[in-house]
Design brief:
It is a single chain. The chain is of the alpha/beta class and 389 residues long. It has helices at 14-25, 32-42, 45-55, 62-74, 91-103, 118-131, 139-152, 154-162, 175-192, 207-217, 225-235, 238-248, 255-267, 284-296, 311-321, 334-357, 370-388, and strands at 2-7, 27-30, 81-85, 110-115, 166-170, 197-200, 221-224, 275-278, 303-308, 361-365. It folds into two domains: 2-192, P-loop containing nucleotide triphosphate hydrolases (Rossmann fold), CATH 3.40.50.300; 197-388, 3-Layer(aba) Sandwich (Rossmann fold). Helix content is 59%, strand content 13%. The protein has a five-stranded parallel β-sheet, with helices on both faces. The chain has a five-stranded parallel β-sheet with strand order 7-8-6-9-10, sandwiched between helices. The longest helix has 24 residues, at 334-357. The model has no long low-confidence stretch (mean pLDDT 86).
Length: 389
């Protein structure tokens, strides 16, 4: 999902540019004024609460506004993301939006501010007041609106500058010239957006083979906690020696081992376009951990894939692998194989439900030739990446 906040003082032309951005990137438009009027017109509970406040001359609370925005996001499932016009207006609202988008497993990708000199803004707004017969839009009123914008909203830009996602755009010129400048920075922001993929599947489903091929195709850093742990075992490191005991029993190693190894992999690839996680997270706790690790870096899980392979087929594949030079030491014992499959069903299946609720999971038939399964994955990945960006 790709989310943009478009900012600018009154008269900067946000409305015109918003319409063009919505069409180009297939975004849903979120303007607090518009959605408040929609809720009031519908007579919804939130709308009636807002109407009651407005009729008394008060300002609608952030609590009501954020509920209306959340409803708008949840009911627009066919778009690639959202365009926030003039929201958040305060630093407090910026924190609220951060928390709301985190709850919805997404984030704000960029904030674009339209920069227009005050004399031009005054000229535009006075002209608009005359055309639309806005008798209340006097010079004094317009100056007060511009000062209010400066006092309250400019600090919001600083908030997003600190996050490295605020872009200033010259708002003077033709509509098409300004739009081209905006799309240039949006595309620049898109290139900075990590694409993070999680690939699930029971032992023997082919995750390793497919994961490496896909990571290479899409230039993503491949992270397999199993491979990383095996390397630590080969090195005889402290983590390796401790992890070996768990892996020999077919059990999941303690979370602190995986966290250290994943963080190290991420830190050693600062140039990465994204990461491909094979078989991780395996538990709900690990799903929270991965979310936390990525959020710390200003990113999130883009999409999740599950290779659907029946248990009997997994046993056949693992038994066959045990007779080759690709065999793992935990392939040699049928009891360990069964325990690993049981662990997947008991502890990992709930993780699939977790991502299912976030609506970013794709189930892929894992039966067939390597080439056929790869084609299915690529087809869905292309769709997932388009939606993610």
């Amino acid at each position: 999902m790709f989310n943009i906040a478009l900012f600018g003082p009154p008269g900067a032309g946000k409305g015109t540019q918003s319409r063009k951005l919505i069409e180009k990137y297939n975004l849903a438009y979120i303007s607090t004024g518009d959605i408040l009027r929609e809720e009031i017109a519908e007579g919804s509970d939130l709308g009636m609460q807002a109407k009651s406040v407005i009729e008394k001359g008060g300002l609608v609370s952030d609590e009501i506004i954020v509920q209306i925005i959340e409803k708008k996001i949840k009911t627009n499932t066919e778009v690639n993301g959202f365009l926030f016009d003039g929201f958040p207006r305060t630093v407090v609202q910026a924190y609220i939006l951060e928390g709301l988008l985190l709850k919805l497993n997404t984030s704000l990708n960029c904030m674009v501010t339209l920069e227009v000199p005050q004399d031009i803004l005054m000229e535009r707004m006075l002209e608009r007041a005359q055309k639309e017969n806005r008798i209340d839009d006097t010079m004094e009123v317009i100056e007060n609106r511009l000062q209010e914008y400066k006092n309250k909203t400019v600090p919001v830009a600083d908030f997003y500058k600190d996050k490295g996602i605020c872009y200033s755009v010259d708002g003077v010129g033709t509509i098409d010239e300004i739009f081209q400048r905006i799309t240039n920075v949006v595309e620049q922001s898109l290139t900075k957006t990590w694409l993070n993929v999680v690939l699930f599947g029971p032992p023997g489903s082919g995750k390793g083979t497919q994961g490496k091929l896909l990571a290479e195709k899409y230039d993503l850093v491949y992270i397999s906690t199993g491979s990383l742990l095996r390397k630590e075992i080969e090195k005889g490191s402290q983590i390796g020696l401790l992890a070996k005991e768990y892996m020999e029993r077919g059990e999941i190693v303690p979370d602190e081992f995986a966290i250290k190894l994943i963080e190290k992999q991420i830190q050693t690839h600062p140039e990465a376009r994204g990461f491909f996680f094979k078989g991780y997270p395996r538990t709900i706790v690990q799903a929270y951990i991965l979310d936390g690790l990525l959020r710390k870096l200003g990113s999130s899980v883009s999409c999740v894939f599950n290779l659907d392979v029946p248990t009997l087929e997994s046993i056949k594949r693992l038994t066959a692998r045990s007779k080759t030079n690709r065999a793992r030491y935990y392939d040699m014992d049928t009891e360990v194989i069964i325990r690993r499959l049981e662990n997947f069903q008991k502890r990992t299946a709930p993780v699939l439900d977790y991502y299912q609720k976030q609506k970013n999971i794709y189930n892929i038939d894992g039966i067939g030739t390597q080439e056929n399964v790869y084609k299915r994955l690529v087809e869905k990945l292309e769709l997932a990446f388009k939606n993610a960006r």
